[in-house]
């Protein structure tokens, strides 16, 4: 419970590490819903100034894990298993539909971009730096897949669902990065083969597998803290 202090090596990626640490603490259930996250206390626990804590809270507010209130500061609103189920089930439905409609409109350049992303993912070694890069590549890969969908409203709905925990799940599920990469390779192959139904199916399975693993992570973390 008290071993939060970051090492000197961690401080090389200070902002990322502070945000990741606070995200993990919230998802582990160390805060009650509605409890204050006091900047001064966590700055001391992590051995940092208040500035990276303040910046981390801004990011966590975007993710829906805290809300910033006047005179009260950061109030924790931890994501629940039900929230995860809702977000990822909707993502599977919408992104599956979007990639199926997108495929006929993907260009040679789109396919080359997907290929390049897969190659970059393959070359990453799992560490704090590579996980941050994997998150960026993962989000770009998914966006390219459904970029060709001509349904305007579905893009807005998907973007809303991505404004939260989804972009950051690789930082929590590092043991599953290889599996995720293999699924991305399979998506790329179906794009090249122009197999829209198979592409839709693997995208949905990929999202739902992530949902299941994230739920296991949250449940296990809360049990360890109880």
What does the model show?
The chain is mostly helical and 226 residues long. It has two domains: 10-76, Arc Repressor Mutant, subunit A; 81-225, Four Helix Bundle (Hemerythrin (Met), subunit A) (Up-down Bundle), CATH 1.20.120.530. It has helices at residues 14-27, 39-46, 50-62, 81-102, 108-122, 128-145, 152-162, 169-172, 177-192, 196-225; strands at residues 36-37, 66-69, 73-76. The radius of gyration is 19 Å and the shape is elongated. Helix 1 (14-27) packs across helix 3, helix 2 crosses helix 3 and helix 5 packs antiparallel against helix 6 (128-145). The chain is built from ten helices and three strands, in the order αβααββααααααα. A three-stranded antiparallel beta sheet has the order 1-3-2. The mean pLDDT is 89.
List the helices and strands and how they pair.
Layout: H1 14-27, E1 36-37, H2 39-46, H3 50-62, E2 66-69, E3 73-76, H4 81-102, H5 108-122, H6 128-145, H7 152-162, H8 169-172, H9 177-192, H10 196-225
Antiparallel strand pairs: 1-3, 2-3
Helix pairs in contact: 1-3, 2-3, 4-7, 4-10, 5-6, 5-9, 9-10
Please state roughly what percent of the residues sit in beta strands, choosing from under 5%, 5-15%, 15-25%, 25-35%, 35-45% or over 45%: under 5%
Q: Could you say what the CATH topology of the largest domain is called?
A: Four Helix Bundle (Hemerythrin (Met), subunit A)
Number of helical regions: 10
Mean pLDDT: 89
Distance between the termini: 11 Å
* CATH architecture tag of the largest domain: Up-down Bundle
- Name given to the CATH homologous superfamily of the largest domain: GntR ligand-binding domain-like
How would a textbook summarize the main sheet? 3 strands, antiparallel
For this structure, what is the CATH class of the largest domain? Mainly Alpha
Strand order, largest beta sheet = 1-3-2
Domains counted in the coordinates: how many?
2
Percent of residues in helical segments? Answer: 55-70%
How would you sum up the global shape? elongated
Class from secondary-structure proportions: mainly alpha
Order of helices and strands: HEHHEEHHHHHHH
Query: What's the alpha carbon Rg, rounded to whole Å?
Result: 19 Å
Contiguous low-pLDDT stretches (5 residues minimum) are none
- Topology, number of strands: 3
GO molecular function: DNA binding; DNA-binding transcription factor activity
Pfam families: FCD, GntR
Keywords: DNA-binding, Transcription, Transcription regulation
Domain HTH gntR-type: 12-79
